[in-house]
Design brief:
about 180 residues, alpha+beta, Aminopeptidase, two-stranded antiparallel sheet
């Protein structure tokens, strides 16, 4: 186990990616996975998904966002929250942000811990991309990831057709202990 204690300042790199053409590769969701759009999701529902997916990756930014701002974002008709479920249990989610046309930003994408390593990531990403490219007038899709995310996230996005456009080096103080052995590359 490789543990970095909460309160430690850690450096990380953010990679901003984009794609300008709908990808050809389409992996279908497994038959037992249902993809459902959450209409006007309450904050508690968003945070349940956000924390389930992001707690091991230091996803904390939305907890610091003003509640009214986050609520307006989630309730916007130009923002779509999609949830992948197996047997009624969330396996992952993504958010499509169409507020800056003709770009669709894949604002959030991730799997719950029980779904990681089950082969669902590629299929869910393909569904997210299909939904993004189906948006009216979309000419590009963007996403970002960082070195605090799952170690295979960047490679997954690049293999789907995203191209790295720019990088930013940042640092943050960890809010939780981080066990880097949980998700080896």
């Amino acid at each position: 186990m490789s543990l970095i204690k909460a309160g430690t300042e850690v450096p990380y790199r953010v990679t901003f990616l984009s794609m300008t053409a709908r990808p050809d590769n389409q992996t279908a969701l497994p038959q037992d996975i249902m993809l459902e759009r959450a209409m006007d999701p309450p904050l508690w529902y968003f945070f349940a998904l956000y924390d389930a997916v992001g707690r091991d990756y230091e996803w904390v930014d939305q907890h610091n966002r003003p509640e009214a701002e986050l609520r307006a974002f989630l309730e916007s008709p130009l923002v779509e929250l999609w949830v992948a479920k197996r047997g009624g249990v969330p396996q992952g989610f993504f958010i499509l942000d169409f507020t800056d046309p003709p770009i669709c930003d894949l604002a959030y994408f991730g799997l719950t811990p029980n779904a990681v390593g089950q082969g669902l990531g590629r299929a869910l990403l393909n569904q997210a991309l299909a939904q993004a490219w189906d948006g009216a007038g979309v000419t590009s899709v963007t996403i970002n990831t960082c070195t605090l995310d799952h170690p295979r996230a960047l490679a997954l996005y690049q293999s789907a057709g995203f191209v790295a456009e720019r990088f930013e080096d940042r640092s943050r103080v960890l809010t939780r202990d981080r066990d880097t052995s949980l998700h080896p590359a």
